[in-house]
Amino acid sequence: MRNRQATQLLFELSKPGRRAAVIPPSDVLTDEPLESLLPSEALATEELALPEVAEGDVVRHYTNLSTLNMSVDTHFYPLGSCTMKYNPKRNERLAGLGGVVDLHPYQPESTLQGMLRLLYELQGILAEISGLPAVSLQPAAGAHGELTALMAAAAYFAERGEKRTKVLTPDSAHGTNPASATMAGFQAITIRSAADGSVDLDDLASKLDDQVAVVMITNPNTLGLFDKGISEIAKRVHAVGGFVYLDGANMNAILGVTRPGDLGADMMHFNPHKTFSGPHGGGGPGAGPICVNEALGPYLPSPMVVREGDAYRLDYDRPRSIGRVRSFFGNVGVLVRAYCYILSHGPAGLRKVSEQAVLNANYLLARVKHILPVPHGDKCMHEFVASAERLKATRGITAMDIAKRLLDYGFHAPTVYFPLTVPEALMVEPTETESKETLDAFCEALFRITEEDADLVHSAPTTTAVRRPDELTAARKPIVKWNHSGG
Amino acid sequence: MDPQQMLFAETHEWVAIEEQGDSKVATIGVSQFAVEQLDGVVYVELPRVGEQVAAGASFGEVESVKAVSNLYCPVDGEVVEVNESLKDSPALMSDDPYGQGWVAKVKLSSDAALGKLLDKAAYDKQCGESQ
């Protein structure tokens, strides 16, 4: 019998009367009945359904649960487009210093000077890396950065009385691009990719007119290819008076090598939790700082950090700003980690990060293409997309099967079924810190899986606490709430 | 309905034309090939009845375990009926794409877009090439 303290819910471990703390009797002496102290609508009509567990149960539950996780600290994690790079422990130590974690945004500015200086300097650093002069650190995630920048562009055109209604995105774009465009009030229109995976310039030309506000480009794109047409695209978009947005999700490929501003982009976002090693997801909230050109700068969210002599303050006097997009000053914790990471590496070090990330991806590509075809060429930037289409046709093994089976070999799966332009896609991004030995071991696992008995691969994963969930039923009839009756 | 009698868009929608009095009504759905590629439809966003639609424009979405895909209207006209049963049973699209899995009926405002559609043989050829 297997110990299930990790995989059972605390509610399932609950036993009536069991508890972790003994609360002393109330020492507030009153004979007043509860009903006379609180209005009746504030009183519960039944006991709250809370789990009753001992402290030891809770500790074991969470500690065991944490060991079932696959993370950058425990496994190779080649999740394409997500840049699951190592999170240096130095960042955590520095972000945990009292002068950082014990601050409160309601403190007087005079007592926040260190933090304000850090944020001010980060604004300048991101402007330098992006080649775009105006920076807002406020957005709380990459997609939030997209939305904020598009809202700034909308405000820019509204002030000029220009009625621009359309935003163009390539068919290989992250799904957030058309979603952000729609949320910002634009009509999202798809541009086709050419056979080589770049933006189809003829299709772009046929959709480009004076109604287009913004064209959103990811470069390198989601196939891991640098779109050489970027300057031509920018020239054509600018010719009709539109802006070019650069989705910065793939900045890990070009740090210190080229700058979006120099390529003709007018606005972009960074993902500090990707490019600048802040932790993803459970490690704390992300951030999506944006950088824009001079013309769009006045429309960025308020406040911004400004410097006056030796003092720093938050500037709210921004009359053309779109206003706040986040409480306080955004998710500062991950910004501190990005600042530490950038200063730890310096300009030459950041360039080395990208060069190494591209080298690792190309090494992996050169080996993987003999196992699974890579439809878009022999070279890549920081990631590449392989296809299991042939394997599916010949042996019935899909990209999803490979992803699941990799877990048994002790590797996190790559991104699958994205981008949509490649059938049975496996999108692999190794990042810069992985050794040759790790990359070789991953290739070996991939090769073995393609040779394995198809039934075995279909039943994977076999070594994990939870096997293969029925994703189809989960999506069609989701149960998003646990209840006592076991439903 | 017999797929051999249908017309197909390059974007994988099928069209079955029916004469109703003086006008033509197109029943529109998603091809067997596309449904197999989607691998399990979990949600269908239907167009609205009364909506004016143009050929080539997005008029709905199909969500599968893998991805969300646009539904492109293959004809010009007005939506006169939608398949409400897809709301509760999206699996109908996977199980019976040429029958109970139909998406919408559109009363044609012109025949112009029909000329760009493929017959079954030409569509099958396109799908074979993309395999």
Within CATH, the superfamily of the largest domain in chain A carries the name Type I PLP-dependent aspartate aminotransferase-like (Major domain)
Would you list the SSEs of chain A in sequence order as H and E? Answer: HHHHHHEHEHEHEHEHEEEEHEHHEEHHH
Q: Specify the CATH homologous superfamily of chain B.
A: RNA polymerase II/Efflux pump adaptor protein, barrel-sandwich hybrid domain
Number of helices of chain A: 17
Category by helix and strand content of chain B: alpha+beta
How much is the radius of gyration of chain B in Å?
Answer: 14 Å
User: Major sheet of chain B: order of its strands?
Assistant: 5-8-9-3-2-1-10
What is the succession of H and E elements of chain B?
Answer: EEEHEEEEEHHEEH
What is the CATH class of the largest domain in chain A? Answer: Alpha Beta
Number of strands of chain B: 10
The most extensive interface between chains reads:
A-B, 12 and 15 residues
Q: Tell me the radius of gyration of chain A.
A: 26 Å
Q: Terminal Cα separation of chain A, in Å? A: 24 Å
From the spread of the alpha carbons, the general shape of chain A counts as: globular
The global form of chain B is globular
Unreliable spans of chain A are none
Q: Hey, roughly how much beta strand do the residues of chain A contain? A: 5-15%
Low-confidence parts of chain B, pLDDT < 50 over ≥5 residues?
A: none
**Which CATH-level-2 architecture of the largest domain in chain A?**
3-Layer(aba) Sandwich
Strand and helix layout:
The complex is a heterodimer of chains A (487) and B (131).
Chain A: H1 10-13, H2 34-37, H3 55-67, H4 89-95, H5 98-101, H6 113-130, E1 134-136, H7 142-159, E2 166-170, H8 176-183, E3 187-191, H9 201-207, E4 212-218, H10 230-239, E5 243-247, H11 260-263, E6 267-269, E7 290-292, E8 304-308, E9 311-315, H12 332-368, E10 384-387, H13 389-395, H14 399-408, E11 415-416, E12 425-428, H15 436-451, H16 454-459, H17 471-476
Parallel strand pairs in A: 2-3, 2-4, 4-5, 5-6
Antiparallel strand pairs in A: 1-7, 6-7, 8-9, 10-12, 11-12
Helix pairs in contact in A: 4-12, 6-12, 7-8, 12-15
Chain B: E1 7-8, E2 13-20, E3 23-30, H1 32-38, E4 41-45, E5 52-53, E6 58-64, E7 68-72, E8 77-82, H2 85-88, H3 91-95, E9 104-108, E10 118-119, H4 120-130
Antiparallel strand pairs in B: 1-2, 1-10, 2-3, 3-9, 4-6, 5-8, 6-7, 8-9
